[in-house]
Every structure is written in C-alpha cells, then in structure tokens.
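question for whoever is on the cluster today: can someone run the full assembly for these? two chains, 302 residues total. i dont have access anymore since they changed the login thing
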Amino acid sequence: MRIGVITFPGSLDDVDAARAVRLAGGEAVALWHADDDLSGVDAVVLPGGFSYGDYLRAGAIAARAPLMRSVVDRAHAGLPVLGICNGFQVLCEAGLLPGALTRNGHLHFRNRDQALLVERADTAWTSAYTTGQRIVVPVKNGEGRYVAAPAELDRLEGEGRVVVRYADGNPNGSSRDIAGVTSADGRVVGLMPHPEHAVEDLTGPSVDGLGFFTSVLSSVVTA
Amino acid sequence: MPRVVVDVVLKPEISDPQGQAVLGALGRLGHPGVTSVRQGKHFVLEVEGTPDAAELRQIAETLLANPVIEDVELHLPSD
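^ ran it for u. tokens below:
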C-alpha cells in the first residue's frame, strides 16, 4: 500500500509522517509539491510545517502548488487525503475541507500533549478508533483556531463532519473545540494535532496517533 | 504603470485577536477613545495596460483573500 507524503518548501513533519506510514505497515512515497502527478499512490498525507513561511495565509500558497491540482481532482474521486496541521490549513485553502484556520485566540504558539475525543470512527483515516475514544497526541500551532460562519458550523455539526474535538481544554480558541473535520464522503480528513508524533513510545506521549495510518491501509484495501 | 490596491479584512463575525491586542495597547497608551481595531492586509499591484476589473476581482477573491473568513475591497485607479 503506497501512501504519498507531499513535501512543500517549508514542510517540517514530512519525515515523521513518512515514518508513521511505515510503522503502520504502509510504503511511504515522497512526493514533491512542484510535480504534476501523484505517482499512482493510494492515499496522500499533507504534513505539518510552515509551507512558504505562512506567507499570505497559512497554507494559502501551498494550496495552489502544481501537485495540489492532482490532489484536488483525485480527492473528488475518493482518494484518501490526510492533512495534519499545516496540511489541514492547505486542505481548507484548497477548498477540500470547510472552514479556515486563523491566529490562535490568545496569540501564543501552543505546544503540548493534547487530549482529543474521536467523534467519527468511520472515516478513511479514523476507522481504527471507536466513537467517543479519548486519545492523546501532541498539538503545536500558532494559527490553529478553527473558524467558520455560525450557520456553517451548525451545518457541519448536523452532518457529523467533526472528526476530533479537543478535550480537557481548547489549545487555540477553535470554534466549538473543533480539532479536525472531514469531507462529506469521509475520505478527506484534516486536523491540527499531530498523530504522526504519537506513534512510538520512545518519542511520543502515546502511540494513539498510529490509528490514523493503520485506518487508511484498511480503507484502501476495502475501497 | 497603473496601480491597483486591494484591502483585505477579516469578516465582522470572525474574531481578530491581533486587532484586540492593538486595541489593548492603545488603551494602555492613553487612547481610550479608540473602541475597536481590525487588522487587515493591504496589497498594491502594478498592472500592465488598462486593469481588467474582472480579472483583478478574481485575483483578489481567490488568492489575496480567503472568502471563508475575509472581505475584500478592490480599488482600481479610476476610483
């Protein structure tokens, strides 16, 4: 199972994301933002970092990279796509996920281990979890405050589009404690916390993050 | 060369913690009469020939601003 990890100029967590893919049992395929095609991968991860130095808006310029045209086209046809932190910002800017990520409400960069509640255990990236499961993974962002118009938030909640929600404290002022959302078909998921940093006891606060990467392997097999 | 100015500000319903921080500083500096600050972005584009309003609006609304959270004001040279 080949999982592509896209590197943009300024990506930081592409190596950790690729390692998480391998630990889950997949083959990680390095993809470069300026390429045109996805090398036939079965799913794509957009990693964390500061693509283009967060110039203009976080994720805004990366969302217009050549490879993103292929990602958007294939996502509309069901390709599983996971955006982590900056990758989530890119997916929102690319229009694959609703809402936007803005400057943290308290204006501080927040870096800590964060409890999350999994609310959707039936997406391509969360099927290894159970609904209501509590997991702990690192969060680290300065522009992670999820926002959308109130009517849009109501619509997303009504459609069950919130995948993970912050528990035991909201690190950035996100609307309704939303940490991650999914596309209508459950194939595209974005979240601000970093499951790829919680895949080994040696370096993570838990191994709770591994489930994102094992989930997609089974989703690709069954797709 | 014609200059086109694009101003981008957060929509009124999106909170602006940076603007609020500026407002707090103004209060401490003895300017209690300022009651609100909204921080935005100001783009100056130089364009060859006569600016195409439709093209510039598209540029403003699809790249310079994120319409999910921001409003955009386009100022063409004739404005």
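summary bc i know u wont read the tokens: The mean pLDDT of chain B is 94. The longest strand of chain B covers residues 3-10.
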